[in-house]
Specification:
By secondary structure, the protein is of the alpha+beta class. It contains ten helices and 13 strands. Helix 4 packs across helix 5 and helix 7 packs parallel to helix 8. It binds octanoyl-coenzyme A.
């Protein structure tokens, strides 16, 4: 069996930013237009007025201040309220694969590796652009990697579940190295007309290079353990799928986009995540106090504060549980990887850190790392 390490990570950041101020102004223009169209019915009590959104609420409830998106003009157009993405012909690389290739190239360069050093690509994301052929195979071929690839979706835990799959391929020797690529283009799946969730998500792509420790560059992070947990919940859902057409569903139907019971998710997932993390650490012979940094899923600031408090018995410092959701919003499975990507350079050899994601499914995935 081989010892396994994360050699590097990479990131692709989309070209456009939407601040909370811009987002709320566009949403409120949309709400006012709708309300004025339906003014008579609203006055008669037969139609519900759309309430206005507010920057103060968003920042207080979530900690999110802005988000990157692939295309913002369509999202901010009150007549449209969704991104404008161009359909590409089959002989052009698809958008998810294009940003996957960019993040993967960044990860390869940071580890000083070439495509011929890699044996597989897992495309792990909460939403796939199409059913087949796999995005992973398109990314693999565009990079010039010989070997294999497949897509996997475990919502916000796709990246950590992908890391476990990669560790399980590298450890027994079936692959020397795997790229876990997480292109999270969340904006086409977000209900930008729904005040309760229009602020939550952003687009990004991350990549993680998992390989044999013996081939990893100095300063790589050895994977000491991975652990996965799922339990079914309908509190975060998206019912869009291949049966929608046969069911005569309108793509604009509310359940064909992301929807959730945010309060219930908050209450149920925080204790589950804290318990999962402390058990995983205990089984590896660590206490939470032995961990220098927790790179947590980035859905909600108060959620991460509560989980850290449950783990440590006190508030975590920003150094112990870094926050990136103020800049990126919730980027589904990429959030904890961005936190790791941005906040690991200061680790000394021997120091231990933990990545943990949690989200729809419910799903929780943790990875314990030690700097070499
Ligand atoms: N502006 C002003 N007021 C608002 C707004 C707004 N934008 N939104 C809601 N309000 C109002 C509500 O109507 C409510 O009013 P009232 O008290 O009169 O009913 C009041 O503010 C409070 O509302 P909430 O109780 O809903 O507010 P919370 O404090 O619970 O905050 C959050 C809402 C931020 C959603 C919070 O509950 C949360 O973050 N929960 C955790 C959610 C979470 O982690 N979800 C994970 C989902 S991600 C995932 O797993 C991957 C999915 C795949 C990606 C898909 C891509 C699109």
């Amino acid at each position: 069996m081989h010892r396994v390490a994360i050699s590097s990570t990479g990131i692709y950041i989309p070209p456009e930013v939407i601040t909370n101020e811009e987002l709320v102004a566009a949403f409120n223009r949309f709400a006012e237009q709708e309300n004025s169209t339906h003014a008579a019915a609203i006055a008669a009590g037969t139609h519900q007025a759309i309430p206005l959104s507010s920057v103060e609420f968003i920042e207080k409830a979530s900690g999110i201040k802005r988000r990157y998106v692939m295309e913002k003009s369509g999202i901010l157009d009150p007549q449209r309220m969704r991104p404008r993405l161009k359909a590409r012909p089959d002989n052009e690389i698809s958008l998810m694969a294009e940003i996957g290739v960019a993040a993967a190239r960044d990860a390869l360069a940071r580890a000083g590796k070439q495509p011929q050093d890699i044996d597989g690509v897992f495309c792990a994301a909460a939403n796939m652009q199409r059913a087949y052929p796999a995005m992973a195979v398109e990314i693999q071929t565009a990079l010039g990697i010989k070997g294999f690839g497949f897509d996997m979706n475990v919502a916000c835990s796709s990246a950590t579940f992908g890391i476990e799959m990669a560790v399980n391929a590298v450890k027994p020797g079936s692959a020397r190295a795997i790229l876990v690529v997480d292109p999270e283009i969340t904006s086409p799946h977000l209900a930008w007309k729904d005040r309760d969730c229009h602020f939550i998500f952003g687009d990004v792509c991350t990549a993680v290079l998992v390989e044999r420790l013996e081939n990893a560059p100095a300063g790589a992070f050895e994977v000491l353990g991975t652990r996965l947990l799922t339990t079914f919940s309908s509190n975060i859902r998206n019912n869009a799928g291949f049966m929608s057409r046969a069911e005569d569903r309108d793509p604009e139907d509310r359940d064909q986009l992301f929807y959730q019971e945010g309060r219930k998710v908050f209450k149920e997932v925080c204790p589950m995540a804290a318990e999962h993390m402390s058990k995983h650490l205990a089984d590896l012979g660590f206490t939470p106090q032995d961990v220098r940094r927790f790179w947590l899923h980035q859905a909600n600031l108060a959620m991460n504060q509560l989980i850290s408090r449950k783990l440590l018995g006190r508030d975590a410092t920003p150094e112990e549980a870094p926050v990136i959701l103020n800049e990126f919003a919730n980027t589904a499975s990429a959030g904890s990887i961005i936190a790791f990507h941005r906040h690991h350079d200061d680790f000394k050899a021997g120091e231990v850190g933990m990545i943990c994601s949690f989200g729809a499914g419910y799903s929780i995935g943790s990875v314990v790392l030690r700097r070499t």
